[in-house]
Amino acid sequence: MKKLVQDFEVLHKKELNKDNFVLEIKASEALPDIKPGQFVNVLVENATNTFLRRPLSIHFVDYDKNIIKLYIKRIGEGTNKLGELEIGDKLNLIYPLGNSYSIPKNSKAVLIGGGCGVAPLLYLAKHLKEAGNEVTTILGIRSAEDAIELDQYKEYGRVFITTEDGTMGEKGYPTQHSVLKEDFDYSFTCGPEPMMKAVAAYSDANDVTCEVSLENTMACGFGACLCCVTDTKEGNKCVCTEGPVFNVKDLKW
Amino acid sequence: MVNLEVKLKDLVLKNPVMTASGTFGFGEEFADFIDLSQLGGILVKGTTRYHREGNPYPRMAETPSGMLNAVGLQNKGVENFCNDIYPRIKDYKTNVMVNVSGSLVEDCVETATMINELDHIPGIELNISCPNVKEGGMAFGTSCASAEEVVREVRKVYKKHLMVKLSPNVTDITSIAKAVEGQGADSVSLINTLLGMAIDAETRKPLLSTVTGGLSGPAVKPVALRMVWQVFNAVNIPIVGLGGIMNAKDAIEFILAGSSAIQIGTANFIDPCVTEKVVKGIEEYMIRHQVDNVTDLIGALNQQ
């Protein structure tokens, strides 16, 4: 799949809560085929200490409107600068990057996300539903006030919540949710590494095929620098090109 | 029409813009973004005699105006290069050169010997300056005696263009440059990365798995320019300058300081189209300054 370098225009910025926001950005040309789990590498301009691009998950794609949605958490100068963008501002992207989640057919899939790691799961849920899968999403959040975009997930299947403080859904972590007593064929996860490792352990114990989306410090995002490797059973692999999605059986977890 | 052609001894480059090893993969990674045939040359990934897994992660830390890396020469070894990579890239319409590294002199010699057999590789860049391998690597390039030894032995077997990449992590780079010139190097490239480190104050931990790593990007440009200028005044072989070149203006500065050609490294990560833009920018500079041949700019620093 050909990678592109393109300017996008900021169409809309939606503040989800104090830490997270969604940027809707519009391409001037027709979007290429973008698969769930792929990411973009965004140029951050006018930031004193931000030198490299920022890799960000693709949250959703609207081909009719030529729009990509990016779900971003403010965690440092780079993402804070992106949070200061205004309608009409330009944003330069290298995209689409990385591999993607696999899309089985007519299976039972559970999507488990935590924190801003939920970013790629919405677009994945859409693809899974379109391929005839039964989609269940479990979102792990700290508190009810972090419950965001639930209605969008509900378009593609059942949605369950766990909160750490018990203010919504079941109290605890997503890997402790009671719906996991059901049988699933696939688990797809993105979020904090301890949570993904817990999903991997659950999947292993229940004979569920598990795919995780890894995060790593990247310089280029397209396989030139070899900075973002992760340790796999076949040696170091680049998260940017051979990931970010890995079957947990390939990882040394 | 301005003339961008330069020569590194017998090696003809259609323009002075090359890519720096370790920042351009095998060129294939950039084929979606640019026309590789528009470049003066490509330095492909650092290649060693045997497969290397490289260093553990984290391997990269961002710094103001630059980045630190500790990749540690991850590569599949020279046999893999000859058998699997070379057939894929041999027909690029540019000078494809291989960056050769090794922990032992014998490894460098064997690697160079194998690459010498590849018809479409007109030269190697002997890396005596990598700061990210525990043995050998930079150690070759930090004393005249060891630099002389490895260049002398490689020169015996390698018959095409031998460029030697110098380390900035020395007291006097000119003495190393003169030493490798004396052993038959056809050109020198400088600088490799500067040894640096980064710390997370919150966790009190180093940001790289290896604690120290190689600093690149605009942060190192003044050091690189100074060293190019010093070496230009010390040797008679061509210099290929690199270190923090982000645009055509930077490239021109390196040429004025004495570089016959330049390499672009870290900038490729931020703008994968930067090399083509630099070629065009050099051309525009020459038209604006009414310079017919880019060679007229080499070392043309006005010190009045």
From TrEMBL, chain A:
Cofactor: [2Fe-2S] cluster; FAD
Highest taxon of the lineage: Bacteria
Co-factor: note: Binds 1 [2Fe-2S] cluster per subunit.
Membrane-spanning segments: none
Pathway(s) per entry: Pyrimidine metabolism; UMP biosynthesis via de novo pathway; orotate from (S)-dihydroorotate (NAD(+) route): step 1/1
Annotated FAD-binding FR-type domain residues: 3-103
Claim: rRNA-binding is one of the keywords in the record: no
Keywords of the record: 2Fe-2S, Electron transport, FAD, Flavoprotein, Iron, Iron-sulfur, Metal-binding, Pyrimidine biosynthesis, Transport
Binding of [2Fe-2S] cluster, residues: 220, 225, 228, 240
Binding positions for FAD per the UniProt entry: 54-57, 78-79
HAMAP family with a match to the protein in the record: DHODB_Fe_S_bind
The protein's assembly and partners: Heterotetramer of 2 PyrK and 2 PyrD type B subunits.
Role this protein plays: Responsible for channeling the electrons from the oxidation of dihydroorotate from the FMN redox center in the PyrD type B subunit to the ultimate electron acceptor NAD(+).
Recorded family membership: Belongs to the PyrK family.
Name the UniProt record assigns to this protein: Dihydroorotate dehydrogenase B (NAD(+)), electron transfer subunit
Gene behind this protein: pyrK
From TrEMBL, chain B:
Keywords of this entry: Cytoplasm, Flavoprotein, FMN, Oxidoreductase, Pyrimidine biosynthesis
Binding residue positions for FMN: 21, 45-46, 99, 127, 165, 191, 217, 243-244, 265-266
Pathway assigned in UniProt: Pyrimidine metabolism; UMP biosynthesis via de novo pathway
Cofactor(s) for this UniProt protein: FMN
Gene3D superfamilies the UniProt entry points to: Aldolase class I
Pfam family, one: DHO_dh
Function in brief: Catalyzes the conversion of dihydroorotate to orotate.
Protein name according to UniProt: Dihydroorotate dehydrogenase
Reactions that this protein is recorded to catalyse: (S)-dihydroorotate + A = orotate + AH2
Family classification: Belongs to the dihydroorotate dehydrogenase family. Type 1 subfamily.
SUPFAM superfamilies per record: FMN-linked oxidoreductases (SSF51395)
GO MF, one annotated term: dihydroorotate dehydrogenase (NAD+) activity
EC number per UniProt: 1.3.-.-
Keyword presence, Nucleus: no
Cofactor note: Binds 1 FMN per subunit.
Active-site positions on this chain: 130 (nucleophile)
Gene giving rise to this polypeptide: pyrD
